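Batch manifest, entry 17 of 40.
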Amino acid sequence: VTYLCLINTVADLSDRSMAEALLKGMPDSFIGIRSIANALIVNQTLTALYLGYNLLSDNGGAVIVKSLEENRALSTLDLGWNQLSETSGEAIANLLKVNRTLTVLT
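Output type: structure tokens
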């Protein structure tokens, strides 16, 4: 799988052959966000993750940001049109100080 597009569901992003994933309409549930975050730690082939247009809150954003401290493959991350505040923006800014792989952020 090089590209995965799922609407209203949670994906298994631990598939190490996946290069890009588009997830829309995901609920901001701890289990869903935690599974994505855990997959970002082990999946070092995923280069683009599109999480725009979800109900991602600051709590979910913090979990994703924390996982990207260890991920060195993801270069594109879309978090647009979620429910993230300045708190998440600050966390992302701090992430960019340590994660040099992430080059496209929307």
